Amino acid sequence: MKFKLIFLACATLALSGCEFLDVMPAKEADFEDAMKNKTEVENWIYGRGYHEIESSQPITYFSLEQTTDDFILPNQMMQNAETQYKYDQYYIARGQMTASNASDRWWALYGNIGYINLFEQQLAAQNPSFLTESDKKLYLAHAKFLKAYYSLVLLQGYGPIAIVEEYVGSDTPKEAFPGRSHFDYCVEYISRLLKEAAEGGLPESNYTATSTYGTANQVVCAALEARLRLLAASPLWNGQFPFPNWANTRFETPGYGLELVSHTFDLEKWRKAKTAAQEAIRIAEDNGRRLMQIEDMETMAANQNVSTTELAYWIPGVDTSTPEGLEFYKRVLLMRYVAASDETMGNRELIWTNKGSLWHRSTLSHVWGSLPRSIIRTTNGTWMYCYSHVNPTLETVEAFYTKNGKLPKDDPEFTPEADWLKSAGLEREEVINLNVNREPRFYAWINFDGCDIGPHLVDGAPLRLNLRSSDEGVNCWSGCGYDPNYSQSELPQTGYLNNKFISPHETYTPDGKYSDYCYPMPLIRLDEMYLILAEACAELYMNGETGELQNALDAVNVIRTRAGIPALKASDCTSQMTIRDWVRAERRIEFYAEGSRYYDLRRWCTAPQHLAAGCRTGLDCYVSRRVNPTLEEFNQRVQVDGDYQWYDRMYLLPLTSDEVYSNPQMVQAPGY
């Protein structure tokens, strides 16, 4: 992005009265300079236009979407975090976000919508002669897409939003500022923009490594339409909104009056979600998207010298000399590569990613935040390390299936719950029963006491993790337990470390070199479309359309069988575990640490059951501050450190006080 265009952006932020409409003309020469040739025009739409996608993506571990029970970060670390990280992590998870310390996401996203509106205005006003009609059509299609995407992100977080379709002049009176529009009206507005973008010039697909990689195409539009329709059909916005009296006081939505939310259930919204998911799958597969399979993984592994014929690192109970053991190991590697690969490696599952490879655009934050604090001793005697502070909760660990594809509490073949935290009696005595006989995704994405992190982490060998010992250990053995001499940011909190997004080829060497393989953030994967379809069919079935049960099973089984667990049958759906429960459980596992759970728990209206005080537990890796605890002392369930809370106002993010004060049409989210 050219610096002068960034300056132009800053110059536009001067409209008095309404912060989220802060877009006003800069000098005419600045606009002409920003459109003086095709390169500058594309810098504006592809550069600044797409910029906020990088900042608002949901996967970096300090984003607001990572404030659920998927994992926790050290309490003291977040208390002392940089201001915005603290707002988005510490305040949200602890119920302390208010109108006075609200996240700046509203302002940032509307800022980008303003830039896009300004781009549209200037493109029409200047009508550069060096652009063909095809060029202008394409750029305007991207503009529509970006407004749709930013509006959808706002809708997910804030509920009913203000619709700003075109450039707003600095002389606009306060009385003309838009307020929030009815939620359903916002949905149809975003849907219209996505359709116009797809039909208005966006390519069918653009997955080659060119300057347009990471920008929109028709497949992305279809996928976002499915995500939009899922949100609209979900309980929070389909009859169960917990604040029945919330409404506008001055601003009216055409056809809805002052009303902001519909309070009656509409089954047709689920039918629209089903249709949108089916269409998204069709257009994605027509354009070469498909779920990653074992043969894809084997190609990736061969290119990185990772063995797929014998066990390259220890996994409890896996014997690759048997066909069953080898298949299981391959499924573990497959699921690792699903989350740690890109298009150039052959990952056709990715529908849309953040372009680039910087911290905010890639999986790098999880690599550094998840690996242990002691990895390898270099030749000069110092240790190479990461931070070990992305710590899955026990609730997350228990949410992954057993090898039989059932929840541990519901699997009669799994260890009884009373013995989950006892040693499993393996050659590594520190491994507990809860961590044995689990599904492939568990071993792909969760690290635990006694496991191997591998296969290449320590100069081409696995690293055996010791979460009890405070000793630094030796190469290929990491003491990562409580030690008062370390910063809290380097002390694991729950007895588990994250392994998702970490490449099997991640390597640290004695000469001080390291790989830090990181990949573009997966904003949309094809598996999401199957699970949207499964959820829509499940809800239709739960509401009396009996023929939809098999459709739901078929869709969810695409994900289960790829993960290496048995397909669900109709007989598995009972009053204790309905098809709705199965689909929700599958989303929790498949999208672990990807930010989806933040929105899922809210749109399902189930957040109080999972995010309230006492709902996050772990092993006693930190809470008792024991140095070198025994197995029995370590393997106790404890409440994690931190005052986590849930209040129903947290279903929506608040606006800043200034935003509400400056716009007489704007109403605050309920409860703030």
Please outline the major beta sheet.
Answer: 3 strands, mixed
User: Could you list the spans in which at least 5 consecutive residues all have pLDDT below 50?
Assistant: 1-17, 24-28
In which range does the helix fraction lie? 25-40%
Please identify the structural class as seen in this structure. mainly alpha
Shape type: globular
End-to-end Cα distance: 38 Å
Average pLDDT rating = 92
Number of helices: 22
| Rg from alpha-carbon coordinates | 25 Å
Strand content: 5-15%
Compute the number of strand runs.
Answer: 13
In which order are the strands of the major sheet placed? 7-8-9
Overview of the structural elements:
- With 672 residues, the protein is mainly alpha-helical.
- The protein is built from 22 helices and 13 strands.
- A three-stranded mixed β-sheet has the order 7-8-9, with no helix packed on it. Strands 1-5 form a two-stranded antiparallel ribbon. A two-stranded antiparallel sheet has the order 2-11.
- A hairpin with a 2-residue loop joins strand 7 and strand 8.
Question: Which terms summarize this structure?
Answer:
mainly alpha; two-stranded antiparallel sheet; 22 helices
